[in-house]
Specification:
Dehydroquinate synthase-like, alpha domain, 15 helices, 2 domains, binds nicotinamide-adenine-dinucleotide, alpha/beta, 12 strands, globular
Length: 375
């Protein structure tokens, strides 16, 4: 199937969507006339995605490849510094172009490096994971983690273009496909009750069995991208509307960061967001009138499709502390994006600590659920 579309934007970043957008990369790069091109990869995208990209894209024949480590632990200031030094050693200048070929870690880190190098060089995102394609590559948020705090240092710095090619997902391990699905579910819950019902009819395992190049995935990814883009165009700097995208991320980011402090149960981004959405849905029931039947449907679907890793009582203070460090805190109170029903978000809802604790207890009570046997 050949699908192609350009999702028009009113900001500076055109988003190209489809499996055959290589000629558009050539055209764009030709018009930009960069002095040199650097492709940032991680070991997996070097092996699985880079050969195809180079083969199909004439303008990248002489590009230099720079590599960073794989996974969340690579999103550090130390790694950014290493990459800056590599750029200096290779003679990169303000007309150099950076191409981020990878998942959300590569685009967050690569965008950060591009934003900082000589006060900013151009970069293009070619996302290769589902989190990257449905979410991370869009919207110009770049960041690295600092200490244990996610995305603590970063810039709003838009890509020159984003090229989303679902064909790259063919080599993505299933657990990472599942992780990306969480961001798509988030979008459905905050923006589109019909999409949520459609997802609800398909257990996670069934969704993951659909070929990544099928119309089904194309529609899911394109719909999610269009929604995020619409939000970003209206509120690039997250002053108001963009906060809607934080549904599930307040608790999610804290659990993701905490899982890196206590190795053993490392949570992928989407797995943590799924846990966060269960907590946010509980709070939505408590504070925003989400019907108990809706809460039930959300928690059952997510608990069957994603791992439920209980937060030990002894860990709760540290997790709360991480939440307070996150940007969703206002005057000492945590602010949540909640839903009154699927497709109806509410932003800036203050929640007291005891309510958040209740939500975490609710999440904990789901452990020992059916994941992954009966998804
Ligand atoms: N900037 C934003 O707006 C935004 C939004 C959402 C998430 N994020 C960030 O994104 C990160 C998570 O992204 P992620 O889940 O893509 O992580 P990731 O970049 O670590 O990719 C996940 C894994 O998949 C591998 N991989 C990627 N593409 C592949 C392919 N085509 N074939 C085989 N392996 C492949 C990677 O090497 C890695 O092991 C988090 O740091 C999160 O904070 C940022």
């Amino acid at each position: 199937m050949k699908l192609f579309s350009r999702i028009t934007t009113t900001d500076r970043t055109p988003i190209f969507f489809g499996n055959d957008t290589f000629s558009s990369i050539d055209r764009l790069v030709y018009n930009m006339r960069p002095s040199d091109i650097f492709i940032l990869v991680d070991p997996n995208t070097r092996e699985h995605c880079l050969p195809h990209l180079i083969e199909k894209t004439r303008c990248l024949e002489n590009a230099r490849v720079i590599e960073t480590g794989e996974g969340e632990s690579s999103k550090t200031l130390a790694n950014a510094e290493k990459l800056w030094n590599e750029l200096i050693a290779s003679g990169a200048n303000r007309s150099s172009l950076m191409i981020n070929l990878g998942g959300g870690v590569v685009s967050d880190l690569g965008g950060f490096v591009a934003a900082g190098y000589q006060r900013g060089i151009s970069y293009i995102n070619i996302p290769t994971s589902l989190v990257g394609q449905a979410d991370a590559s869009i919207g110009g948020k770049t960041a690295v983690n600092l200490g244990n705090i996610k995305n603590q240092v970063g810039f709003f710095y838009p890509a020159r273009a984003v090229f989303i090619m679902p064909l790259f997902l063919k080599t993505l391990p299933e657990k990472h496909l599942r992780s990306g699905l969480a961001e798509i579910i988030k979008t459905a819950l905050i923006s589109d009750a019909n999409l949520w019902r459609k997802i609800l009819r398909n257990p996670v395992r069934r969704l993951l069995q659909k070929p990544v190049e099928s119309r089904f995935w194309f529609d899911l990814i394109a719909g999610t991208v269009k929604y995020k883009n619409k939000v970003v165009v209206q509120d690039y700097r997250e002053c108001k509307l963009r906060k809607v995208l934080n549904f599930g991320h307040t608790v999610g980011h804290a659990l993701e960061a905490f899982s890196h402090i206590r190795p053993g149960n490392l949570l992928l981004h989407g797995e943590a967001v799924a846990a966060g959405m269960i907590c946010a849905s509980y709070l939505s029931h408590l504070k925003a009138g989400l019907a108990v039947e809706e809460l039930d449907a959300i928690k059952t679907y997510l608990a069957k499709g994603f791992p439920v890793i209980p937060v030990e009582i002894s860990s709760i203070p540290a997790v709360m502390q991480l939440m307070m460090h996150d940007k969703k805190e206002h005057k000492g109170e945590l602010q949540f994006t909640l839903i009154s029903k699927p497709g109806h978000p509410l932003m800036n809802v203050s929640c007291e600590n005891r309510e958040i604790l209740e939500a975490i207890e609710f999440y904990n009570s789901l452990s020992g659920n059916n994941y992954p046997a009966n998804q």
